[in-house]
């Protein structure tokens, strides 16, 4: 009841709140550093996070792009790039799910959970490292976009906002992937499961084609799912156009994902074994 | 209040611990005590519940019932305090293979809240101690199995734990790496570390442990020193190999008359063992005559002191390895709590205990 008596009895060697906060940050940074170090040492990760998105850009720009007509007077590459950046951010989280599943299987997570480190650090460090990795990938894809005639046409500030939105979107997807990685706990199943939900989510959206070109039943899905709201907002930020309505819907979706999947991921981590 | 630390008690104390995964009863009420500075060997076949016990003691799993204290700290109520006292090295090498040995240890040091310079010094010490200095800056992926396991053990020691849990530390290692691991473990124990070691190798428990508990199907079925357990077999053991597998049953019949207990034959290796009590060389002579009369060819006929294998046979009616194969063939690989009942700890039980007293029957 009263705040004074509610102070829990601690044994002398228990760390205080401040120490715990400091350690939580320090442990998160240590795990982040470890994850980034691992990332630079596995060629396959570099292929997935850099080469694959670049190939998508080239594929849609030069192979499919000619057959896709987009509304208004914008060139397809300008329509495409915000979509492909969002997709790149979402696909980057394959790595999150796979890495957590691997660590779980190999007993690395057991080892970490048996140590007196901050409980939050493994997940937090994973999200920080993967968000950093995702940002690098996004910037590379933007660069490749510029090489194939993509141009931001709504000012530098809005261009930066677009990259920020893509990263926040990627982080939300990252949380879902972290949850699936920990809950499924098997590398190959996690990979297969990622394909099952990430492919439809990104392709059945406004990312690559105008939704009006899809059959009606598909439009119903594509018009109301988060990737479409996020991509439409990004497109408006990059090229100009009305933002508000798509932005709020995107924001509600993203907040919803954070609210639902943060506790789920934490719970999956605590129960993981 | 009631959490006052009891530093006079044993380093590890377990009372009435139970844990089930669905309808698989991994632990069905075990008691253990490990006095400070000693080694307890927890011996049992795959699926006996050893790993579950270690996971509870290292705060990775909550027990259903019972109590477990490590250095006087309750693993459920004070997990953070327990984690400061323990080191854990599991069945597989829990190291980051893409990092070097040195980086692995430095990162663990940082997570134990050492400063970077301290973490570096500690890593160098451990690399030296575990004979990994030459390989320190190679990626752990390129280490041999034995080296990876040593690195994993080194990582569990970064925080100078008072109590070390080793879950099957030599499983999957070649004989030479295994001996090397034994030497390392012995040196640790000389340094005063309390050790709880699980193993399915009976010679390993014999070699390393002060006290041994034998676990089978989630229950402690025997405990004592290696010698005490061996005396349960009741004297010496006569052992020989029958090269012609078709003659094994004849051999068993022949020595059945001279033994004090029912002979046991391993159909795969052709090894026949029989307890002969205190009759020693008389039994040996009888056996030779009897086998000769039945004209069964044998190799390596000898009388020996009982091994823990014989103990296991005497206690459970089956050899540890037999059950291990059963458990393996029934697919027990995952350690996950959500595993299907058939693949969980205790799998293969029915097949093995056929005809034996089943402690679960009727309950």
Structural commentary:
The complex is a heterodimer of chains A (273) and B (363). Chain A is an all-alpha fold and 273 residues long. Chain A has one domain (19-271). Chain A contains eleven helices and no strands. In chain A, helix 3 packs across helix 10. Residues 1-12 of chain A have low confidence and may be disordered. Chain B folds into two domains: 12-229, P-loop containing nucleotide triphosphate hydrolases (Rossmann fold); 234-305, Alpha-Beta Plaits, CATH 3.30.70.980. A six-stranded mixed sheet of chain B has the order 6-7-8-3-9-10, sandwiched between helices. In chain B, strands 2-1-4-5 form a four-stranded antiparallel sheet. In chain B, helix 3 packs across helix 4. Residues 323-363 of chain B have low confidence and may be disordered. The A-B interface holds A 9, 11, 13-14, 23, 26-27, 30-31, 33-34, 37-38, 41-42, 106-108, 110-117, 121, 185, 271, 273 and B 1, 3, 5, 55, 58-61, 80-81, 83-84, 86, 88, 90-96, 98-99, 103, 107-108, 110-113, 139, 155-156, 159, 335-337.
């Amino acid at each position: 009841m009263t705040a004074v008596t509610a102070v829990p009895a601690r044994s002398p060697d228990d760390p205080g709140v401040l120490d715990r906060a400091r350690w939580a940050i320090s442990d998160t940074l240590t795990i982040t550093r470890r994850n980034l170090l691992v990332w630079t040492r596995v060629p396959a990760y570099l292929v997935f996070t850099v080469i694959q998105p670049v190939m998508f850009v080239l594929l849609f720009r030069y192979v499919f792009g000619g057959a896709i007509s987009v509304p208004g007077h914008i060139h397809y590459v300008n329509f495409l790039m915000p979509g492909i950046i969002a997709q790149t951010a979402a696909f980057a989280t394959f790595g999150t799910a796979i890495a957590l599943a691997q660590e779980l299987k190999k007993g690395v997570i057991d080892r970490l959970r048996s140590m007196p480190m901050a409980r939050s650090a493994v997940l937090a460090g994973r999200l920080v490292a993967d968000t950093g990795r995702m940002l690098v990938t996004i910037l590379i894809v933007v660069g490749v976009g510029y090489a194939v005639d993509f141009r931001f046409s709504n000012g530098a500030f809005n261009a930066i906002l677009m990259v920020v939105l893509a990263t926040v979107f990627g982080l939300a997807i990252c949380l879902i992937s972290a949850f699936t990685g920990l809950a499924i706990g098997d590398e190959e199943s996690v990979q297969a499961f990622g394909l099952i939900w990430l492919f439809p989510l990104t392709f059945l959206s406004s990312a690559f084609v105008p939704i009006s070109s899809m059959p009606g039943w598909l439009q119903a899905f594509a018009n109301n799912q988060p990737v479409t709201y996020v991509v439409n907002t990004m497109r408006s930020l990059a090229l100009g156009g009305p933002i508000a309505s798509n932005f709020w819907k995107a924001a509600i979706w993203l907040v919803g994902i954070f609210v639902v999947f943060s506790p789920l991921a934490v719970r999956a981590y605590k129960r993981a074994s | 209040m009631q959490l006052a630390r009891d530093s006079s008690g044993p380093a590890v104390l377990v009372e009435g611990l139970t844990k089930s995964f669905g309808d698989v009863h991994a632990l069905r009420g075990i008691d253990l005590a490990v006095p400070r500075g000693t080694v307890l060997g927890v011996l049992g076949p795959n699926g006996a519940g050893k790993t579950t016990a270690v996971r509870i003691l290292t705060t990775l799993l909550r027990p259903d019932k019972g109590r477990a204290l490590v250095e006087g700290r309750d693993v459920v109520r004070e997990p953070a305090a327990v984690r400061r006292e323990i080191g854990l090295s599991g069945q597989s090498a829990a190291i980051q293979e893409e990092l070097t040995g040195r980086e692995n240890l430095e990162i663990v040091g940082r997570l134990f809240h050492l400063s970077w310079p301290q973490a570096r010094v500690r890593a160098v010490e451990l690399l030296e101690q575990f004979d990994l200095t030459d390989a320190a800056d190679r990626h752990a992926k390129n280490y041999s199995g034995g080296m990876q396991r040593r690195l994993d053990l080194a990582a569990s020691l970064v925080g100078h734990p008072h109590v070390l849990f080793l879950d099957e530390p030599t499983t999957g290692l070649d004989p030479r790496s295994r001996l090397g691991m034994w030497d390392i473990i012995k040196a640790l124990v000389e340094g005063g570390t309390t050790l709880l070691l699980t193993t399915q190798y009976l010679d390993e428990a014999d070699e390393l442990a002060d006290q041994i508990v034998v676990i089978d199907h989630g229950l402690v079925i025997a405990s004592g020193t290696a010698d005490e357990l061996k005396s349960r077999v009741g004297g010496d053991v006569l052992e020989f190999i029958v090269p012609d597998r078709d003659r094994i049953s004849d051999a068993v019949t022949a020595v059945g008359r001279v033994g004090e207990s029912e002979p046991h034959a391993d159909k795969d290796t052709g090894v026949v063992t029989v307890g002969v009590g205190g009759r020693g060389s008389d039994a040996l002579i009888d056996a030779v005559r009897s086998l000769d009369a039945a004209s069964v060819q044998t190799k390596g006929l000898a009388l020996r002191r009982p091994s823990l294998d014989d103990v296991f046979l005497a206690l459970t009616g089956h050899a540890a390895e037999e059950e291990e194969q059963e458990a393996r063939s029934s697919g027990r690989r995952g350690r996950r709590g959500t595993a299907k009942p058939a693949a969980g700890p205790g799998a293969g039980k029915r097949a093995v205990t056929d005809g034996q007293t089943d402690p679960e029957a009727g309950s």
